[in-house]
Amino acid sequence: MNKLIRLKENYYKYLDKKSRHVARLLSMKRPITNLLLKYINELYNSARLDASFKNKNFESAYHNPISSDLEFLVARILYHYSIYKKLNWKILEKMSIKLIDR
Questions:
Q1: How many domains does the chain divide into?
Q2: Which residues form the domain of 22?
């Protein structure tokens, strides 16, 4: 497997681990707002990595969009929540998240 694919796979595994933690807390009726905002902030900060390459000969005004990563995080939270609560939801992450109650 190509190294870039492994890096992306690990990135999404990392997001999934975060989503599982949020879903677990949510299923136990624990507060998640601060934690979820922390994770969203982490996503936004990850989009600004190009700043680490800035020097007198290179600048970028482009930031990677995070909307698809945020959708993945939310979809995986719903997925894990469904498992914890035995809801049997099927999560379809496309242009928007759709829940199908089976």
A1: 1
A2: 3-101
- pTM of the complete model: 0.84
Question: Do the beta carbons of residue 91 and residue 74 sit within 8 Å?
Answer: no
The number of C-alpha atoms within 13 Å of 48 and in the hemisphere containing its C-beta is 6
SS3 state at 55: strand
At residue 94, the pLDDT reads 75
The CB density around residue 95, as the number of other CB atoms within 10 Å, is 7
77 Cα distance to chain centroid: 9
For the stretch 51-66, pLDDT in tens is: 778 889 988 777 788 8
For residues 78 and 99, is the Cβ–Cβ distance under 8 A? yes
Q: State the CB neighbour count (10 A cutoff) for residue 73.
A: 22
Q: Comparing C-alpha atoms, which of 93, 102, 88 is closest to residue 19?
A: 93
